[in-house]
Each structure stands twice: as structure tokens, then as C-alpha cells.
Design brief:
The complex is a heterotrimer of chains A (156), B (376) and C (187).
Chain A: H1 3-14, E1 18-22, E2 26-27, E3 30-33, H2 38-47, E4 55-63, E5 68-75, E6 82-89, E7 95-97, H3 106-117, E8 120-122, E9 150-151, E10 154-155
Parallel strand pairs in A: 3-6, 7-8
Antiparallel strand pairs in A: 1-3, 4-5, 5-6, 9-10
Chain B: E1 12-17, E2 29-35, E3 38-45, H1 53-59, H2 66-70, H3 77-92, H4 98-126, H5 131-151, E4 160-161, E5 164-165, H6 173-196, H7 199-205, H8 213-218, H9 223-228, H10 235-238, H11 264-288, E6 307-315, E7 318-326, E8 332-338, H12 340-345, H13 348-352, H14 357-367, H15 371-375
Helix pairs in contact in B: 3-4, 4-5, 4-11, 4-14, 5-6, 6-11, 11-14
Chain C: H1 42-52, E1 56-60, H2 63-72, E2 85-86, E3 94-98, H3 103-115, E4 121-125, H4 126-131, E5 154-156, H5 163-178
Parallel strand pairs in C: 1-2, 1-3, 3-4, 4-5
Helix pairs in contact in C: 1-5, 2-5
Classes of the chains: A alpha/beta (156), B alpha+beta (376), C alpha/beta (187).
Chain lengths: 156, 376, 187
């Protein structure tokens, strides 16, 4: 399915929650959505028979310096098409609803984004640090992250 | 295995498995809660090999990142090299000479063979049969010799470049590759005779940790783990990249031949059969490889245009997808690597519930996980 | 004394040339003409025993672990040097740190080392364990060398070192062991 057609479908269904189509230079193209309605749009993308995006390829946190984003890469095993979905978040309070009950695959990706960016996924089944130790300070993939000098007395 | 409910009352016990454990394939830690011998919960704890590869990607240039992709999956370094090169080429729309693409396919498939050999060898060793491991290493050393001839290293190759490969195949390489294929193909039957249909081995694997197809898709499993559940999805066929459309090979799927479709045995068998298909691909590639340059002209301090690209390729442990964002400078703005092993671990807690402790080892081995891919 | 006790055969003069056995006579176990004779001080005997059975802890964290596996397998066959892998630190004499050590792993390394019985040795295999390797500059969570955590006897450079280099490292450690003084006045 063409990205433009999909965008129009979503726009017709969700109105203002679907912000724009980010196609220039992006492959696959991204549908930018409002963070608050990520979950219902995700559910629609999965359940609509014409779309049926049943597989979440990737979920990544991104730090665009002035704001954060969460990018979802979706793929449909049935129709063999792919699309990106993106939600921009403010730097101060980065939080949005979880999609791990839509795609169970999201859980680990969300935990990673929480660990490395500090993005909070509300309603997540299990939101803990996944890669770094529990008592690690800060979120290393943020652009303003300062490397610590010592961790448990060992030089970093 | 079934849980006895009428037996004596028991008490739950927490067992720590790893991070130093010979059968967790590295430094995976699993916190097992058991009721007697039966696992009630197995929570994986990862990150013991988290080296910050994604942060490093933001601090080095596109060309400098190539050696780090070797360390992303050291058993299939060629595949990761090429995945990185393909991603950057997709972002910057670089045309790669045909000979380079053929060489990439040859090395990727050879590396798939050597990676599956380790999967086969270490899995059988986990299951208590040490001899097949020695057989597998015997063949793997010959692949290593080929790679050493090609690029001078045995494990971390750093062979691909943005725009091609680092150098043409030395004289005699293609002939040696053919020799290896002739030597290797009958060995697969030897493995099957040696261990694959061994009664004890089959008993350990069949009907253990069955993953139905819908569940495998929902949890995002890819590669042999997905195909083991009977889903014929292979990026080389379904989202063809490079020169894969020119080759004739079949997608191996699990058939449930010794148990239920999607059990450990199916995942194991998919890998064995895939090696045969890889042999087929390499044979065709060696026969068809054209002459010509092996590297496109790419400036040394290369700046791709502003943009975002997601490229996924079929690595031995499933799909390796690289999400790359360029802001037009020499360093990437963001680089996310989605690896097969990381996503596979997500389903681990679900499939191990109710298994025996010894079966947990069988499950870890059947997923063929590798820790740097999980932790990055 | 043999000129190089670190290599191969037991130290001390070899057995006297044995008379050929009469046909049919079984060699007597232990003290017959075939028995090797060791002449030397107790240090030599103890050190020789230690260096000839270096059981190493299979502590493979990253890439070097694969080379370690291959060194132990069919082609390179590290068992020749009496080095066989153990899965538990309690049975090991040698800790082969093969691979990157992260901060999350650091206290586990220390704990494993503490669990090993004396005398114990450490070989740091590969650049990551030596200095942090390629992750030295840009990584936030890699320990810059395992010697910040535990004492190291032999460093093997390489990323990853070839199995030959690893075997050379084991032989270097054997030479170090042969120089140890266990009895008598403290050196």
C-alpha cells in the first residue's frame, strides 16, 4: 500500500491525531502521529484487514536534540508492505502509551528506549532497565549525556 | 513434560543461571523460579555485554563504524558488515558494482554456514554430545581459512566497505571456495547420521518449547526461529536485496517431523537445511560472478544527505535491521540496530514456563542467541 | 637439570636407556626400567605438576571466546598443554578472560576470581580485556582493562588473538609458573 493512501486512511479515521506524512528522504515513509493516540492507531493498523500490520520490526527512541521521538517500523506478513510511524515527544516529559499489548514484541524495545533515553511508556507490563545496571545514573543515548567518572569505584 | 499437581507440596526456589554459565552462550543471566524441577518463571537478565555500540555509532564516521559491526555479531561478522554497508548505501543511494555484490553474497552465505555450524556444534554440546562440536569446528576452520585468504582475519573481517568491498578476491579464492563446497556438502549428511536423528537427542528437542506461527509473528521472531514455526518468510526471497533474486534456492521451514510444528527440533533442523541452501547459493554465485571493479567511488569523508533509512537483511540469527538517521554531517545522528537475538529473548519467558530446568538449556540453544547481539 | 624445564618432558636426567624387554615379559608398573625418574628439588616437581595441568575457567564473554573455543577444538587442540576447560571456578587454576568486561559484569569477574582456589593465574586475552580495546574511547560502560579488577599474569594482544597467540600465552604462563619458589626462604 502506498504511504500516501495509508496516510489518508488514517487521517480520515483519526483526524487531528495524525499530524503529517514524512516522506522526503525517509525510507520507509513515516506517518507522524500525536503521542497520546499511539495506542489506538497502532491497534487500528494491526486489526484493519486492509492494513494488518501484524509485525513490529523495530521500535526506536530518537533524540533529535530539540525533542525526542519514538519511531515504529511496521510490516505486514499478509500484504508484505511496510510503513513507519513516529511520535514526537517533548524533552522535559517524554512519555506516551505503550503498545506492548498490541505487539508483544514491543516490550523489550520499550524497555530499551526507557533504559537508554528515559522515555516512559505508560501502562507497560514491565518497564525496567534492560541493559544497564539498575543503579546506573542517567540515560546514555541522550545527546546531553555526560559520561560518569566512576561507577562503583572503577573508572569509566 | 507435565506438572504433577497431586504430588507432595513443594516450595518455590530461585536459581540463578549465569552470567557465567557454559550453556548460556555467553553472559546471559536467567533468574529461574522453580518448583522442584519445573520452571515456573524464567526471567532473562541481559546487558552484561552492553558495550554501547549505538552511542559509539554517533561518535564515529560512517566508514569508521565498519569494524564495530564485526563485534555486533562475531559469529556472522560478514553479514553485519554487509548490513551496515547496505544501509548506508540505501540512505545515500550509492550504486555498488556487480562484482562487489556477488562477493558480498558469497561471503555472507559462507558466513551463514560457519555460523550455523557453531549453532549446531554448541547446541549438541549443550545437549551432552561433545563430539559433533569437534566436527563442526573442523569445517568451520576451513571457512575461516577462506576468509583469512580473502581479508586476513579469522573472526572479525571488516571486509565490506560503503560502496563495495575492501578488495577483490585473491587468485585462487573462488576455486578454493568451490573445493570447500564439494567437501562440505556431504558432511551435512554425516551430521544427520551422527546426531540429528539420534533417539536421545530427538527426545530432548521434540515437543519442547512449541511456538505457534501467529505467536512467532506477534513476538517478532525472525530468521530460523520464525521459519521453525512453519512461516516461510525469508528476506532474501520476500524482500530481495543485493543480487539474491538471481539465485535459485528454497526457504527452509519447520515441518514438525519429529514432534509438534515449531518445537526445538524444527528450529534445529531449519539451520541444518539452510546450510545446504547456502551451499547452493554460493555455488551459483561463484559460477555467475562477473568481472569488474569491486568498489564504487565514495569520498573519504563521506556525508550522506539528510534522511532516514531502515534496512533489514537476513542474518543467521534472524533479521538485522539498521535504522539510520543522518543529519548531513560526517557522523550519524542516530543508529539503532534491531537484531534477531534481542527480539527472540522477548518470548523466552513465555515459552519456558512449565518446562524442566534441563529444557531451558535446550530452549536457549534452539534460539541460537548470541549475546553481543542482545546487548549491543 | 635439563636446560629448559619449561618445555615438554619432566625435568631431570632422563631414564637410563632401557634394555629391550624380553619377548612376553610385561613391564612392571611404576618402578620398572620404563618408569620416568625425576631428580630435582620439590619446587621443580610442584611447579612442573602445576604447569602441566592448567585447567582454565571457560569465561568467554565476547568475540575472543570463539577463538578460545576454536583453540580448544580439533585443529589447535589446547589439551596438549594440559589445559582443559572447566565450567566452574572452583575447579580451575587459570582464569582466561576472553572478551569485553562491562561495568555490569565487573563484580562478577571479581567474585569468580575469588572463588578459584590458590594458586591461581589470570590470562587476559584480547584487547578488550587488556585495555578496553576498540571501546576504550567512546563507550560508557566498558571497563578499561580487566587488570583494574583482578591481577593479570599474561596479556595477549589481538582483536581477537589467533589461537596460536593464545597457545603462546599459555606457554608463557607455564614459564612463569616454572620460576615460582614455593618452599624454603622467601625469594
Amino acid at each position: 500500500m502506498e504511504a500516501q493512501v495509508l496516510f489518508d486512511t488514517l487521517k480520515g479515521k483519526f483526524g487531528d491525531a495524525v499530524v503529517e506524512l514524512q516522506g522526503e528522504g525517509c525510507s520507509p515513509a513515516f506517518v507522524v502521529v500525536a503521542p497520546a493516540s499511539v495506542q489506538e492507531i497502532a491497534r487500528f493498523l494491526r486489526d484493519d484487514p486492509a492494513l494488518s500490520f501484524d509485525s513490529l520490526m523495530c521500535l526506536s527512541g530518537v533524540d533529535y536534540k530539540e525533542k525526542f521521538a519514538v519511531a515504529y517500523h511496521l510490516h505486514s506478513m499478509k500484504h508484505r508492505h511496510a510503513i513507519g510511524m513516529k511520535a514526537f515527544l517533548p524533552r522535559e516529559t517524554p512519555s506516551l502509551p505503550t503498545v506492548d499489548d498490541v505487539w508483544p514484541a514491543a516490550n523489550f524495545h520499550e524497555r530499551e528506549a526507557f533504559d537508554l533515553f528515559g522515555i516512559v511508556f505508560e501502562g507497560s507490563k514491565d518497564l525496567r532497565r534492560i541493559l544497564l545496571p539498575e543503579d546506573w545514573e542517567g540515560h546514555p543515548l541522550r545527546k546531553d549525556y555526560k559520561y560518569p567518572d566512576f561507577y562503583h569505584g572503577i573508572k569509566v | 513434560m507435565t506438572i504433577r499437581t497431586d504430588a507432595l507440596p513443594t516450595q518455590e526456589m530461585t536459581i540463578n543461571m549465569g552470567p557465567q554459565h557454559p550453556s548460556t552462550h555467553g553472559v546471559l543471566r536467567v533468574i529461574l523460579t522453580t518448583d522442584g524441577e519445573v520452571v515456573t518463571r524464567a526471567v532473562p537478565d541481559m546487558g552484561y555485554l552492553h558495550r554501547g555500540l549505538e552511542k559509539i555509532g554517533e561518535r564515529v564516521t560512517y566508514a569508521q563504524y565498519m569494524p564495530f559491526t564485526d563485534r555486533l555479531d562475531y559469529l556472522a561478522a560478514m553479514n553485519c558488515n554487509c548490513a551496515w554497508a547496505w544501509t548506508v548505501e540505501k540512505l545515500a543511494k550509492i550504486e555498488v558494482p556487480a562484482r562487489a555484490e556477488y562477493l558480498r553474497v558469497i561471503v555472507c552465505e559462507l558466513n551463514r554456514i560457519s555460523s550455523h555450524l557453531i549453532a549446531f556444534g554448541s547446541y549438541t554440546a549443550d545437549m551432552g554430545a561433545f563430539t559433533p562440536f569437534l566436527y563442526a569446528i573442523r569445517e568451520r576452520e576451513r571457512v575461516n581459512d577462506l576468509f583469512e585468504m580473502l581479508c586476513g582475519n579469522r573472526l572479525t573481517y571488516n571486509y565490506a566497505r560503503v560502496g563495495g568491498v575492501s578488495g577483490d578476491a585473491p587468485p585462487g579464492f573462488l576455486e578454493k571456495t568451490k573445493e570447500f563446497l564439494d567437501y562440505f556438502e556431504p558432511k551435512l549428511d554425516e551430521y544427520n547420521n551422527l546426531i540429528s536423528y539420534n533417539k536421545i537427542f530427538v527426545h530432548r528437542l521434540a515437543n519442547v518449547a512449541v511456538i505457534p506461527a501467529e505467536e512467532a509473528v506477534a513476538y517478532g521472531l525472525t530468521g530460523p526461529n520464525l521459519r521453525g514455526s512453519g512461516v516461510p518468510f525469508d528476506l532474501r526471497k520476500d524482500e530481495p536485496y543485493s543480487v539474491y533474486p538471481k539465485f535459485d534456492f528454497k526457504v527452509c521451514v519447520g515441518t514438525g517431523e519429529r514432534g509438534t510444528l515449531g518445537d526445538c527440533f524444527d528450529r534445529y533442523m531449519v539451520r541444518i537445511n539452510e546450510m545446504r541452501e547456502s551451499v547452493k547459493i554460493v555455488r551459483q554465485a561463484v559460477a555467475q560472478i562477473p568481472d569488474g571493479p569491486v568498489r564504487a567511488k565514495v569520498p573519504r569523508l563521506f556525508k550522506p544527505p539528510v534522511g532516514e533509512a531502515y534496512f533489514r537483511s537476513e542474518c543467521p540469527r534472524g533479521e538485522t535491521g539498521i535504522y539510520l538517521i543522518s543529519d548531513g554531517t560526517v557522523n550519524p545522528l542516530r543508529l539503532k540496530i534491531r537484531t534477531g537475538s534481542f527480539v527472540t529473548m522477548n518470548i523466552f519467558e513465555k515459552v519456558t514456563r512449565g518446562l524442566m530446568i534441563a529444557d531451558v538449556v535446550a530452549v536457549i540453544g534452539s534460539f541460537d542467541i548470541i549475546l553481543p547481539e542482545i546487548d549491543r | 637439570m635439563s636446560p629448559d624445564p619449561a618445555h615438554g618432558q619432566p625435568p631431570g636426567p632422563g631414564p637410563p636407556p632401557a634394555a629391550p624387554l624380553a619377548h612376553g615379559s610385561a613391564p612392571s608398573p611404576g618402578l620398572g626400567p620404563e618408569a620416568h625418574v625425576m631428580v630435582g628439588n620439590a619446587d621443580l616437581f610442584v611447579n612442573w605438576s602445576r604447569k602441566s595441568s592448567l585447567w582454565y575457567l571457560l569465561f568467554a564473554t565476547a568475540c575472543c571466546g570463539i577463538e578460545l573455543m576454536q583453540a580448544g577444538a580439533s585443529r589447535y587442540d589446547m589439551d596438549r598443554f594440559g589445559a582443559v576447560f572447566r565450567a566452574t571456578p572452583r575447579q580451575s587454576d587459570l582464569m582466561l578472560v576472553a572478551g569485553t568486561i562491562t561495568h555490569k559484569m565487573a563484580d562478577r569477574v571479581k567474585r569468580l576470581y575469588d572463588q578459584m582456589p590458590e594458586p591461581k593465574y589470570v590470562i587476559s586475552m584480547g584487547s578488550c580485556a587488556n585495555t578496553g580495546g576498540p571501546f576504550y574511547k567512546d563507550s560508557y560502560c566498558v571497563v578499561k582493562g580487566v587488570d583494574l579488577l583482578i591481577p593479570v599474569d599474561v596479556y595477549i594482544p589481538g582483536c581477537p588473538p589467533r589461537p596460536e597467540a593464545l597457545i603462546d600465552g599459555i606457554m608463557s604462563l607455564q614459564k612463569i609458573i616454572m620460576r615460582k619458589k614455593n618452599f624454603g626462604a622467601k625469594a
